[in-house]
Write a structure and sequence with these properties.
This protein is α/β, with parallel strands linked by helices. The protein has a domain of 37 residues. The chain has twelve helices and ten strands. Strand 1 and strand 2 form a beta hairpin. Helix 4 crosses helix 5 and helix 5 packs antiparallel against helix 6. The termini are far apart. Bound molecules: adenosine-5'-triphosphate and magnesium ion.
């Protein structure tokens, strides 16, 4: 193969791990409200993506295209190489698990346990696997004590946790969590962050739609900022927090650690968490003493 041929084949090999591809997608809701405008974006296997933006920016509308509940008005969405126009949401759901922003749209069973079991049976898991995966989900999301409770009688935060549990129970390849930290206390948020890391180590593609910058920042995801149905910025967390213009357009506050180090005039790599911040400060103090 000569150099020209290698150059030509490069984009193809780059796309090998692409699991979701939006090409020039516009979407208007049935009432005519335009919610997505000219979206072209790609998500890869094993990638962690945070989608941020003001209320009404189009975040939920965008992720609902990935499991085919919504189909583009113009343009195309391909998931695992197949256009969502040719596949049903029911079929895509096995591999694309989405936890909706509003838990009441996802819960209907008589008990917490049967809510989780229902999804698994629906996808044809055998009895033993249904038992194993249900136990895993109840344990992982601290829901054992609620097993026999009615889902609709749980608190808002508990309902959200149940939705996260029931979708992750069926082990989808693409995990989409729309506002997963709403109503979660600090212990549950920490558990969720650990779980995200575990799922990433299993090469899942994880898309987190969230206003909770302090939750997203330590995970250092690829960040996508949305406003008015468009993508304003797309890059590493470190790159995107430097784009102050897009940040203010998207109505997003920078993480506290970024604000602090910017204030201190240190615009190098921003620390992802307090441990990295401490190491950075110690290094600077040692360097200052040695001067
Ligand atoms: N079912 C619907 N019917 C009509 N318009 C809708 C519907 N759902 C959302 N919209 C409109 O589409 C636009 C995008 O909404 P979307 O729910 O995607 O925003 P979002 O970024 O997820 O906001 P939030 O942060 O509030 O969750 C908004 O203008 C919204 O009012
Ligand atoms: Mg939303």
């Amino acid at each position: 193969m000569n150099l020209e041929q290698i150059a030509e084949s490069a984009p193809l090999s780059e796309n090998v791990d692409s699991v979701v591809r939006f090409t020039n997608v516009d979407y208007s809701h049935p009432n005519g409200v335009p919610a997505l405008r000219g979206i072209s974006v790609e998500f890869k296997k094993g990638e962690l993506v945070g989608i941020l933006g003001a209320n009404g920016a189009g975040k939920s509308t965008l992720v609902r295209h990935i499991n085919g509940i919504l189909k583009p008005t113009h343009g195309s969405v391909e998931v695992f190489g197949e256009s969502t126009k040719n596949t049903s949401a029911a079929k895509l759901s096995r591999r694309v698990g989405i936890v909706f922003q509003n838990p009441n749209n996802q819960l209907f069973a008589q008990s917490v346990k049967s809510e989780i079991e229902f999804g698994l049976r629906n996808f044809g898991f055998d009895d033993e696997l249904v038992r194993q995966r249900t136990d895993w989900a109840l344990n992982t999301f601290s829901l054992i004590e609620y097993s026999n409770r009615a889902p609709m009688e749980l608190s808002g935060g508990e309902k959200k946790r149940l939705c996260n549990a029931l979708v992750l129970a069926w082990d989808p390849d693409i995990v989409i969590l729309d506002e997963p930290t709403v109503g979660q206390d600090s212990e549950q948020k920490e558990r969720l962050a650990q779980l995200v890391k575990l799922l990433l180590s299993e090469q899942k593609t994880i898309i987190l739609v969230s206003h909770d910058m302090e939750f997203l920042w330590p995970l250092q995801p690829r960040m996508i900022l949305m406003s008015g149905g468009k993508i304003l910025a797309d890059g590493t967390a470190q790159q995107v927090v430097r784009d102050r213009v897009s940040f203010s357009h998207a109505n997003i506050l920078a993480p506290q650690l970024v604000e602090l180090f910017t204030e201190l005039g240190d615009l190098g790599r921003f620390p992802a968490d307090e441990f990295e911040a401490r190491d950075k400060i110690r290094l600077q103090m040692t360097a200052a003493k040695e001067k």
